């Protein structure tokens, strides 16, 4: 089976701050790493490949340094890597990002199974996967928490729907967004890292895409615009209640109602 | 020993002295946890617990206790494992947990001055926020620094950075008669008479009560990477350790672990470990200022492991990965505890060149004694933790088999020129093993030291060298 | 078309300018300043660099006619006709927004055999409920659901669409947004609307460490997802109001490649780390039997019981429910501690919880330093009373 995994490089920590003067994220000196949720997608791909054979390709969009996460995927066991990198892709929102990825995927090859992590730790939207599936015109399933069966033409999975588990069978080609903890991701292997250190990574820019219209990419292709970013208000509120036990009960009940827990 | 039994008058004196009734516990108000520590089955209640807040208070209490011949037991968080903080002779317990203030961070001398009740986890959070580092890293992060100093706690970074004693520059101590003295200071070098500060470190509350400590700090390494190395057998894993020690790059930690303990931890935490497919693992940690620097440092070690038959070398280089490994490592003690009804532990330390022999000996001991024994430990510094498990044995069977296993382990450690305790101390529970391992002249000196500090023997009696 | 243009002659001190970029997207190549693929178009180099060194060049886009788009639509989230309460919360928000711009409020319900259930929506004050009722739509499947929603948008042209950030909503909304080539903002915590019908969307990013305010200025419809329990639901009216509009599309558009084999109720979360609500039993619980009321309260609040170290050491509660340094680290939306003193060992395992309520008799208990709401009282009176009142409220 040809498996593709979408991955992303994110800052090592999401304890970021907003510069109060410029309103821009302070991220100097912050190390990068692979989005932790993507590790589950890679692990799922490796488990599927153990059963079906085939190849695993990873694809990422980002600056040249994002090649690091592809090397890491190699050290975990991925076979091929594609880096989509062009400054014209800068400032992309969900729509433009998913479009760019879909363009890159189309150029890379035909895949029966495309895997994504649930979300990234920086953007936190959990939307890129489903939007990619739309651009590729293939079915997609999110919240996949278990692979039940891998068949010739389809894959059966369990989806975590909060209160229920839904069991669905999806025809290839399809896209699955996997949940955290579907499998414990393996650690990258030093041996593999050494063996793959000269492995070629395919780099793609706008010129390599089928659609070369700049208007569809980056800031230009993004319908949403971030007007400003600001720090969240912190819950530093402390309050002590005194009174009879029955008064306290009433006060507590009202507070629980206000918080929508009761 | 003839001590005065604490009476109402003594109690009244103490309450008047402290002037805060909430900080003096007696009778029913003494919580059960004050009667024991984290592991040992040594149980005994104090007559009164005083939650002290100042050196002067400690001094006044000691003066009174000294004059009236009342035994005193100091205590921090009570996380010890050998009964050192249990009030065997009852009397007064001095709880230092409210003396938990940071007194001074001296960035010019790179020292931190703290009260004894500050917790280890609070120290690391406080200094790391300021890009500084207090390297000793015992597993129990809610222990007080006073307790850590009293046992000369070691922990996981000892291979590279040493133990608590190496990071104590100075101490303020209240002597058993109430006098307040200072040992050491902010100085880096010190040849001024006997090494009193070093004598206090590891004295388990028998020589004086620590009321202030000056700790040495170093700059915080910016990045840490761990290697988890699966081996086909425990022998191969442990056999590799001396070669790593010999190589020029120094990990901060060299730990070994076996699959069964990993599985206990997985069950205890309800979380999978990144790999449990092999029987034995080494876990190495390296720190430095950049990923590249650390990669260079571990490269030669990785090659040694490959040559010694490691199945693979797995890299843990992100917060999530580090947490999935070290959180499990930190839970081993609790996990093993949760897998049985009761257990006792040994904390022997042997020269690093003998660590493989000791580990294999313990590993095979269960066959000889027919009792479950689990072990893990700091392979890199020769300090091994083995846990003898009671499971569903009857009291007599347990007593018999446990004693046999313990004797055998300590005998083996002696044979390998090791010591009874690496980092947990002697306290009350391990005295007999200490006595067996020491030369009588050595014991005589220790008793003499104790007498010089505490002629009336009121401070933490029955501990360490007093049978 | 917007882009950044470097005017090499005005760059001045190149290293100084390079250091302005927080993303490392400026670099020197052959003596010239270049922008690489790390650029996020934050324009900080334009604002903070030497005047004219880097210019933001924008060609005006053709503006859309916003007045053609009218109404705020809410997706009715349901499984087999059981409507998810987030739907009413979104209707509440939609009404508030619609009132400001004088637009109607629509609901869209998709499913099979739902002609009865859709009437429930009319009790909440919407203008129209568009109902797609077809056997092929019996359960959520991404392709046919996207197809009918697209049909609705193309014929009705709402200016904004609100979708619950449920497992269904979080799949349907992005799929639809891509098909409509429009913007979608996930997990909004605050929504407002400008007079020109631009939806002001505020959402957390970086795990909640920053907030972003987002607009979709030149695309319609504007789409947002919102989590459950963020907005307020309106009161249910006794009377129905508004209109049911039956809709349908060609059957072949409903074909799909996903087959839902079964929906089974999920086993209750076993791990306290995954629970939204935790009720913690501390040493203030005197007897093992008394844990029953803690469990009952946890159940009533849809959460789990947890405990402190003494409780698990006494063998009253399983070790895996122990919170703290030697137990588990939890971060629920709500944690109620009952008779917990608040030793550092415990607090370190829970102090990142969103809302912390502590009940303890001792007003000096350290837990009150951590709690957002501290109740100095007797848990043996407060907890049973509370349980009774919650139950009474449910029956009413």
TrEMBL record, chain A:
Chain ranges of the Electron transfer flavoprotein alpha/beta-subunit N-terminal domain: 22-213
Pfam families: ETF (PF01012)
Record GO terms (molecular function): electron transfer activity
Record protein name field: Electron transfer flavoprotein small subunit
TrEMBL record, chain B:
Source organism per UniProt: Sedimentibacter saalensis
Domain FAD-binding PCMH-type: 42-220
GO molecular function: FAD binding; oxidoreductase activity
Sorted UniProt keywords: FAD, Flavoprotein, Oxidoreductase
Cofactor: FAD
Protein name in UniProt: Glycolate oxidase
UniProtKB/TrEMBL annotation, chain C:
Pfam family, one: ETF_alpha
Residue positions binding FAD: 283, 308-309, 322-326, 360
CDD domains membership: ETF_alpha
UniProt cofactor note: Binds 1 FAD per dimer.
Transmembrane segments: none
Family matches, as PROSITE patterns: 4FE4S_FER_2
Requisite cofactors: FAD
Residue span, 4Fe-4S ferredoxin-type domain: 31-59
InterPro entries given in the database record: 4Fe4S_Fe-S-bd, DHS-like_NAD/FAD-binding_dom, ETF_a/b_N, ETF_a/FixB, ETF_alpha_N, ETF_asu_C, Rossmann-like_a/b/a_fold
Highest taxon of source: Bacteria
A GO BP entry: fatty acid beta-oxidation using acyl-CoA dehydrogenase
A single GO molecular function term of this UniProt record: flavin adenine dinucleotide binding
Keywords: FAD, Flavoprotein
Signal peptide: none
PANTHER family found in the cross-reference section: ELECTRON TRANSFER FLAVOPROTEIN ALPHA, ELECTRON TRANSFER FLAVOPROTEIN SUBUNIT ALPHA, MITOCHONDRIAL
Family: Belongs to the ETF alpha-subunit/FixB family.
Record-given protein name: Electron transfer flavoprotein alpha subunit apoprotein
């Amino acid at each position: 089976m040809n498996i593709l995994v979408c991955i992303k490089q994110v800052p090592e920590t999401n304890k970021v701050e907003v510069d109060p003067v410029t309103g821009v994220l302070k991220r100097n000196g912050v190390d990068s790493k692979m989005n932790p949720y993507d590790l589950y997608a890679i692990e799922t791909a490796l488990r599927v490949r153990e059963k079906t054979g085939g190849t695993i390709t990873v694809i990422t969009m980002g600056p040249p340094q994002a090649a690091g996460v592809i090397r890491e995927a190699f050290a975990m066991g991925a076979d091929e890597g594609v880096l989509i990198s062009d400054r014209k892709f800068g400032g992309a929102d969900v729509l433009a990002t998913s479009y760019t990825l879909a363009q890159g995927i189309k150029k890379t090859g035909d895949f029966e199974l495309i895997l994504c992590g649930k979300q990234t730790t920086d953007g936190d939207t959990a939307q890129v996967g489903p939007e990619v599936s739309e651009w590729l015109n293939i079915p997609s399933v999110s919240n996949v928490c278990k692979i039940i069966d891998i068949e010739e033409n389809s894959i059966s999975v369990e989806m975590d729907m909060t209160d229920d588990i839904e069991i669905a069978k999806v025809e290839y080609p399809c896209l699955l967004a996997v949940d955290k903890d579907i499998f414990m991701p393996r650690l990258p292997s030093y041996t593999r890292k050494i063996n793959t250190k000269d492995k070629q990574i395919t780099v793609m820019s706008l010129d390599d895409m089928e659609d070369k219209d700049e208007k569809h990419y980056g800031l230009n292709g993004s319908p949403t615009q971030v007007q400003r970013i600001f720090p969240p208000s912190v819950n530093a509120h402390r309050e002590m209640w005194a009174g009879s036990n029955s008064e306290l009960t009433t006060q507590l009940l009202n507070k629980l109602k206000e918080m929508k827990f009761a | 020993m003839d001590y005065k039994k604490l009476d109402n008058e003594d109690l009244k004196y103490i309450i008047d002295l402290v002037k805060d009734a909430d900080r003096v516990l007696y009778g029913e108000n003494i919580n059960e946890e004050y009667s024991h520590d984290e592991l040992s089955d040594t149980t005994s209640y104090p007559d009164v617990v005083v939650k002290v807040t100042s050196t002067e208070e400690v001094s006044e209490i000691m003066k009174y206790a000294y004059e009236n011949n009342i035994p005193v037991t100091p205590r921090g968080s009570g996380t010890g494992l050998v009964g050192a903080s249990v009030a065997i002779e009852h009397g007064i317990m001095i709880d230092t947990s409210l003396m938990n203030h940071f007194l001074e961070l001296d960035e010019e001398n790179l020292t931190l001055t703290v009260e004894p009740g500050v917790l280890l986890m609070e120290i690391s959070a406080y200094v790391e926020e300021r890009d500084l580092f207090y390297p000793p890293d015992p597993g129990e992060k809610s222990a007080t620094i006073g307790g850590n100093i009293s046992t000369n706690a070691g922990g996981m970074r000892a291979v590279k950075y040493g133990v608590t004693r190496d990071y104590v520059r100075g101490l303020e101590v209240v002597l058993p008669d109430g006098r307040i003295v200072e040992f050491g200071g902010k100085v880096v070098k010190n040849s001024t008479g006997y090494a009193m500060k070093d004598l206090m470190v590891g004295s388990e509350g028998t020589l004086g009560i620590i009321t202030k400590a000056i700790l040495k700090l170093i700059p915080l390494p910016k990045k840490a990477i761990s290697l988890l190395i699966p081996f086909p057998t425990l022998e191969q894993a442990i056999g590799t350790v001396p070669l790593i020690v010999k190589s020029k790059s120094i990990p901060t930690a060299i730990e070994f672990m076996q699959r069964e303990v990993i599985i206990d931890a997985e069950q205890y935490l309800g979380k999978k470990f990144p790999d449990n497919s092999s029987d034995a693992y080494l876990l190495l940690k390296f720190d430095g200022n950049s990923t590249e620097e650390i990669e260079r440092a571990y490269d030669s070690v990785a090659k040694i492991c490959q040559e010694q038959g490691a199945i693979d070398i797995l890299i843990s280089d992100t917060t999530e990965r580090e947490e999935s490994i070290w959180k499990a490592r930190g839970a081993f003690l609790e996990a093993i505890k949760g897998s049985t009804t009761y257990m006792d532990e040994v904390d022997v330390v042997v020269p690093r060149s003998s660590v493989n022999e000791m580990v294999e000996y313990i590993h095979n001991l269960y066959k000889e004694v027919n009792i479950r024994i689990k072990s893990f430990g700091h392979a890199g510094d020769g300090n091994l933790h083995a846990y003898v498990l009671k499971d569903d044995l009857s009291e007599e069977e347990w007593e018999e088999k446990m004693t046999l296993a313990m004797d055998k382990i300590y005998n083996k450690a002696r044979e390998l020129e090791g010591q009874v305790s690496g980092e947990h101390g002697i306290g009350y529970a391990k005295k007999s093993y200490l006595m067996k391992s020491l030369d009588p002249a050595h014991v005589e000196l220790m008793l003499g030291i104790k007498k010089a500090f505490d002629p009336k023997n009121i401070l933490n009696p029955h501990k360490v060298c007093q049978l | 078309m917007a882009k950044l243009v470097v005017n090499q002659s005005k760059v001045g001190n190149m290293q100084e300018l390079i250091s302005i970029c927080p993303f490392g997207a400026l670099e020197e190549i052959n003596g010239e300043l270049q922008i690489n693929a790390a650029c996020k178009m934050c324009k900080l180099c334009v604002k903070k660099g030497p005047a004219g060194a880097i210019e933001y060049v924008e060609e005006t886009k053709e503006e859309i006619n916003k007045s053609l788009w009218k109404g705020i639509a809410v997706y009715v989230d349901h499984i087999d006709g059981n409507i998810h309460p987030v739907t009413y919360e979104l209707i509440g928000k939609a009404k508030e927004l619609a009132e400001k711009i004088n637009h109607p409020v629509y609901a869209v319900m998709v499913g099979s055999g739902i002609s009865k259930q859709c009437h429930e929506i009319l009790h909440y004050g919407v203008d129209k409920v568009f109902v797609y009722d077809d056997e092929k739509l019996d359960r959520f499947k991404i392709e046919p659901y996207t197809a009918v929603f697209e049909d609705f948008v193309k014929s009705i042209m709402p200016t904004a669409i609100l979708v619950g950030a449920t497992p269904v909503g979080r799949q349907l909304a992005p799929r639809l947004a891509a098909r409509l080539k429009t913007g979608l903002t996930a997990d909004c915590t605050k929504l407002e609307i400008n007079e020109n019908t631009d939806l002001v969307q505020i959402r957390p990013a970086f795990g909640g460490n920053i907030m972003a305010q987002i607009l979709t200025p030149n695309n319609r419809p504007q789409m947002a997802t919102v989590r459950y329990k963020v907005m307020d639901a309106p009161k249910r009216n006794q009377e129905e109001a508004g209109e049911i509009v039956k809709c349908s599309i060609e059957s072949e558009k409903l074909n799909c490649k996903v087959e839902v084999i079964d929906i089974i109720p999920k086993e209750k979360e076993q791990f306290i780390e995954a629970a939204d609500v935790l009720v913690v039993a501390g040493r203030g619980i005197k007897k093992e039997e008394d844990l029953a009321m803690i469990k009952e309260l946890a159940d009533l609040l849809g959460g789990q019981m947890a405990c402190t170290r003494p409780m698990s050491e006494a063998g009253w509660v399983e070790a895996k429910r122990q919170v703290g340094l030697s137990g588990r680290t939890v971060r629920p939306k709500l944690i109620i501690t009952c008779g917990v003193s608040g030793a550092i060992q415990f607090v370190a395992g829970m102090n990142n919880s969103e809302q912390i309520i502590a009940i303890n008799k001792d007003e000096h208990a350290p837990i009150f330093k951590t709690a957002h709401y501290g109740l100095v009282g007797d848990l043996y009176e407060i907890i049973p009373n509370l349980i009774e009142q919650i139950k009474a409220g449910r029956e009413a």
